[in-house]
Structures are given as C-alpha cells and as structure tokens.
Amino acid sequence: MSYLPFVDGLRALAIIAVVAYHAFPGVITGGFAGVDVFFVISGFLITSLVVTEISDGTFSLYRFFVRRARRLLPAAFACVVVVTVLSAFILLPDAFWYYGRSLLAFIGLFSNVFFYLTGGYFSAPALEKPLLHTWSLAVEDQFYLTWPLILMLASPFLSKRTILGLVLLSLGASLWFAEAKVSIDHEFAFFMLPSRAWELLTGAALALVASEIKFGRAASEALSIAGIVAVLASFLLLSPHSNFPGLHAAPACFGTVAIIAGCMSQNVLLTRLLSYRPLVFVGLISYSLYLWHWPLLALASYRLERPLDAGEASLIVLISVAVAIFSWRWIERPFRSSRRSAAATSAKAATWGLSDGKFVVAALSCVAIMAMFAGTIKGMKGFPNRYAAESRRVLSQLVAGNPVRMRCDGFENVFADDDVCNFGKKRDPGGSYELALFGDSMGDHWAPLVAKYAEHRKLTGRQVTNGGCPLLFDVSIPAETEDKIAECTSYQTEAKKFVELNPKLKIAVISGFWEKWLWLVNSAAAQHANSADRAGSPNLNFDTALERTVRTFTDRGIKVVMIGQIPIYDPLPIRCIIGAIENHRDVATCGKPKAEALDELKLSNAALLRVAAANPGVSVSLPSDFMCQEQRCSPMMDGILLYKNGGHVNQFGSEHLERFIKFPEFSEEPPVPPS
After folding, report:
1. Angle CA(247)–CA(248)–CA(251) in degrees, nearest 5?
2. Helix or strand (DSSP H, E) at 143
C-alpha cells in the first residue's frame, strides 16, 4: 500500500486531542477519544500490510514482528530509561515501587491488565502513574500478537468476503460486549482488549474492502466531512463521565473510517487539509509524543503535589514536542531500517543499519535489562533507604492501612473470617458482638481506632464495612455502575441482618465519605421530585436516610457513634512533608487552611450534627475539630503521619486519633431488642 499522508494528518488530530486532554483538563473534555482514532488507524494499516503480503506470498510472521519491534521498541526503551531515572529522583518509595511494577507490566505487554487491577484511568491517583498511558500500547500489542496469525491461517482456506463477514461478526460481538460491560465494570470495558477489539477490527474491515471502495467526488466530500464532524464532536462532547467506550466511542471510530474511505476515494478538501505538511509532521512524531508527554506531565504534577496550571502544562507540552522530534529523528527513523534497506537510503538519512538478527539480539537484551531494573525497583520497595531515618519512619506509616481490610471489608465478608475480623475480646461461638464498625472505605480506615477502643474496654467487636458503599438503610444508593448499585444494596441487606443477629450489640460506629453521599443522595431525591414519573416510593434526602439508619440502631437500644469525614487532600502533600523533615522545617506548613477544610465539610458536618441533636443516644465526632489547629489542618500530629492517601487515614493515624472520639457510657445490661 502506498503512503497516505492524510493518515498522518489524522494521527496529528488524535495526538493533539490526547495531549490537550492530559495537559489542559476541561478544555477538550473528550480528548481521550484520540486513542480510539489511533486504534482504528492501526487496525487499518496493519491489516492492509498483512493482507497485501499474504496476497503476494511474501508474508512472514518473523519479519512482521521484527518490523513492529523496530517501529516501537527503540523509542519506548529510550523513553523508559529517562523516565526511570527521573522517577528515581522524584517519586517517593511507595510510588517508585508502583512504578517498578507498572514497568514490569509494560515489558510483559499487559499494562492494560495491570492498571485495570490497580486503579483507573480517570482517577486522581493517575497522576502518580507515569506509565499509565502504556495501557493502549498493550492493547495494540495484544492485537498484533493474534490478528496477523489469524489472517495467515485463515487466508488459504477462506475467501476475503468470508473473512470480512467474520470480522464484521467479531466487530459486532465486541461492540455489544463493550456496551454491556461499560455499565457493569467501566474500568474493564476501558482497559481490556475484548471490549476494545471492535475498534481495531473496524479499521481491519475497512482495509479488507479498501481496494473495492470508489465513491464519486460529492459522496467522498460528504463522507469525509461527516467523518471529521463525528471525530471532532467526540473530542468536544465526551467527558470522563460518559459511558465510554461502547456506543459512545462509535462516532470517533466510524468517523475515522469515513475520513479514510472518503479521502482514499477522491482528492477531496479534507485530503488536502490533512496532508498539510505541518500537520503531517505532527502525525509523524505522534508515537514519540504519545510516549513522552504523559510521563513528563505526571512527574511534574507529582513533584509539585498539585495539578499543573496552564503555563506549566504548556511548558511541559513544548518540552515533550521537542523531545518527540529528537526521538523521531534520531531513534525511530534510524532503527526502522535494516542493514539491507539502509544501503539504499540517502546518505543524508541517519541509520543504525542493524541487520534483523542483530536487532533482535539487541532488543531482547534491552528488554532483559529493563526487566532487571523493574524487578529490582519492585523488590527493593522503591528504595526507601534514600531518605533519613525519620523520613523512612513516616513513609512506613504512609503505606500502613487497615491490616485486615482485604479479609474483612465487603458485604460477602460480613459473616466470614471471625478469627481475623473479630477485634477486642474474642466472641464466644454463637455469641453476639457488642461493638461494630459500619461504612465505606472511610469507615474501614477507622478499624484500627475502633479495635483499640474495643481492646481497652474489653468489648467484642467486628468490622462491617464495604468500600464504595455508605451505610444508609432504606435508600437506593447512587453508584456509577449496575454492579456497584447491586453491591451496595447487598451491603445494606447484610449489615441489617448483622444487627438483627447480634442482640447484644451496644455500640455502632458509622463513618463514610459523607460529602459525596450527601450530594449524591440529595441530587437523586431532587431529580425524583422533579421527575414526571413519580411512581414508587419517594427518594429520601440525606438527612432522612441517615436518621432512619440511626434509628435502626437506637430503636434497639444501641448507641451510635458517628465520625465525620476527614479533611481531604488532593493529593496528599507527602513530598512536602518529607522535604520538611529532611530540611528541618515545620511540617504544619504542608497542611491546608482550616477555613478551606471547614468549607469543604460544612454540609455533611451540619447534617451529622442535626441528626445527632434529634436522636438521643447518638454522638458525633468531627475530625475537623481535632485534625485542625487554629489556622491550618495538618496531615501530621505529634510526629505521626495521619494519612495513607489524600482521603484516608493510615493505621497509625487511626489509632492515634482514638482519644478524640466521643464513645458513649453504657450500662452492663444488654440492649433490649424491639418487640
């Protein structure tokens, strides 16, 4: 297939959208769809190449993979070497340890699986993941490993029309799966090949019919214009809150197909626009720019412990472009040529001129070296010995969460693992718990605190929490996916069953991400009130839902301890804290203004106080009262780091704050269950 300059122009639009989305969030809210444009282009070009060579009888899997390696590995290796060195100086041990694990995943071609299992693409901690963007490279690599082989094996036995039919069938199945999965497990749909394969297969289907496509000028103009409108609309109208991918990705993908088909048929206006040399040049450097821009943005933001402002982001983008140009000119282009092809290259064009055999040896050696360094970073836990003893102590506190969370959090664990989840005095077989902790992950993080109290008071206690689900009885819990809604419903059911099956329960401790749930529950209630269809029971507002929840306990004579939401840091200023310790400065300066923290918590704090005032037997402890001093809130207290991340306390902080919680006095008689 001859070179199509407009395809590089289309690549330019895609990379501009992706970089703009990462550097200037909110400006191009759907810029992440640029990756989908890349997927379609990749499927089209790879399939065109493989089908042509199979038809000519020249296709070789070995040569195909060597070409892919020449195209991708050298620039990636150079980028990873520099990013690893920068990360060693910028990332703290926990983040550097995570980086080492992500580097191993990148080398093993399963970055998408790794990031699916350890976090999300749109989450705030993404700023701590310099290799997050490699998920899309893993998806393409997984496609490359399977698709050419399938074509090679199928071509001798099946006609092109039959192969096209199977491709369209697979495309439809993958799209259906993506659309079904996005509302159930959004992160899986986003990261994994089964829900992304249809985008690559869309390009593949176009490649299989490209030689037969011939539209008239008017049709080609209309097709290309419709395509570019669909692609640009995706960039501008999508957002991180869209149900994406799935049908929401269809305009960008099918729009890309329309552009390629229209521009191939005739020399239309869009063909000439996309073939504009500066735009083509941006497309040529798009791979290197994709490699470099995200790590530099992420590391800069991590170093500053805040999102970059427009000026800082612009500077990083300019640096990324400069590095990408260098990478394309002196790394990508030279390594694409073997010794044989280098001999035919102009003397002005630099080339390393390695034969395929030598390149393979060199590439495997580099991969082994990268794997060794990644394994060392992972094995050494990010090299904490880079810091002084006091800093290491604080860093060790940072990574210490609730030690039993994995075994005890979740609705399915409410009645499981008593030996692990029972804290304080051991419960007699078949006996009742006296103390229980309820809530989401912001309830879970108080488990060490409640366990400490139970130990001192010789009470039999247990954790009854579920991450991402509040304890709010008799209300439909708003959540992002159907699976999460079902999970939260199951949690309410299991928590209520726990209360019923433990008649000697004396104290219920409840906490959570109160500001989030207040906003979500009240928004759902307001939406229901304004809805034309008000069938069924009305949605409760937050105050009513919380009051009903509290009375579920107090009607049984159970005392309720509500713990407010902690001041949140986005992100936790841990670099500032370590810098202050290393340079003997006041750590309190790393905190946030008290007025700002109180403003962020005022709605939920007020709601908790209202409900407590209306219900005897309920106490409220507001962390903003004891985690903040006169002017500032501090993430440290008495030399102890309180936080695990910006929204959760760590084990040491949880235990240290136990003295501030208003636990009730109670008689020795057990509460009387309702008749």
Report:
1. 90
2. helix 134-154
